[in-house]
């Protein structure tokens, strides 16, 4: 899959910009605060209908303007698809093939992207939210059903938490209504848990192979899903539901006192072991970085395995954060295979030597010029 054209209109510090990309590696070079990350953000937003940097859509609209628009042309093995997204006071509008998409779940998945930024090196050591977001964003792009289940789960969770909060504060207390919400939540939760377990198993296979290559065969990487119940191999949905029901029964009184849902996929995490020891606790900084890199590259391979297409890779100022060995592995893994967008103040020595014919764009104060 690739993004062949991108046009920005009043997006961040871009007035009107039209760009043509190559299938291989595209590089955005420029000094600080010129608009390099804004370009990556626009590609990310075109793919996922949201920014990776802000929850406030208004931030994306150029100051003093009323509407921001991104249009792009996607090429994959089925042909070409125009996509567009715009943000205005009326809200967000997403179009595929010039047709309005009322639900974002029908829009997301047209363009698959994987973003790798310096913060992702914290994937291993960071808070559980970082890893949950990693699962949800990458997995959601390759599995529409999962995307729908996640948004359904969030909605029911919000209702259930609101009801529990009111309960804790002495408001309405209808046990039957609460039971209905609990049942609905457990139903979706069990599907999410099974999907995440499957996803992590597949990701482990890919990431372990890459980790071994980067660490020269000496280390084995394994992933361990942490959820409210213990998920056995080949578990069925009704078994997960039953196990979850027991957890909810156990938590019932506490939930009513605390006014919130204490267990479920919103509290999940996964642990990354290297040679059977939790790399977040026992690993060196180098091992943690190798594991993070292996997980990201593993995702790329998994997306290819699941969708038949490689995603587009966005590397936001990440090369200079990696040592020569890890940079080499990263570039060799993607070259000639994955369309990639790199931002950097300047290319690293390793990148200059390894990248064959990059297309270079010079970014200056919201203007982009192709380097001849
Ligand atoms: N909504 C907006 N309207 C106009 N300009 C904006 C808007 N949002 C951000 N900017 C401008 O965009 C610039 C930042 O661009 P960007 O984050 O892409 O920097 P960068 O080139 O990636 O720099 P660095 O290498 O430091 O990360 C800043 O000058 C900021 O003032």
From TrEMBL:
* RecF/RecN/SMC N-terminal domain mapped to chain residues: 3-78
Quick one: which residues bind ATP? 30-37
The membrane-spanning stretches of this chain are none
Q: Where in the cell is it found?
A: Cytoplasm
Q: Which InterPro entries is this protein grouped with?
A: DNA-binding_RecF, DNA-binding_RecF_CS, P-loop_NTPase, RecF/RecN/SMC_N, RecF_2
> Per its UniProt record, what PROSITE patterns does this chain match?
RECF_1, RECF_2
Which top-level group of life is the source organism from?
Bacteria
Q: Which CDD domains match?
A: ABC_RecF
Q: A Pfam family in this protein? A: SMC_N
Q: Which UniProt keywords apply?
A: ATP-binding, Cytoplasm, DNA damage, DNA repair, DNA replication, DNA-binding, Nucleotide-binding, SOS response
Q: Per its UniProt record, what HAMAP family does this chain match?
A: RecF
Q: What does this protein do?
A: The RecF protein is involved in DNA metabolism; it is required for DNA replication and normal SOS inducibility. RecF binds preferentially to single-stranded, linear DNA. It also seems to bind ATP.
Give the family from UniProt: Belongs to the RecF family.
PANTHER family attached to this UniProt entry: DNA REPLICATION AND REPAIR PROTEIN RECF
Q: What is this protein called?
A: DNA replication and repair protein RecF
Annotated organism of origin: Fructobacillus cardui
Question: Corresponding gene?
Answer: recF
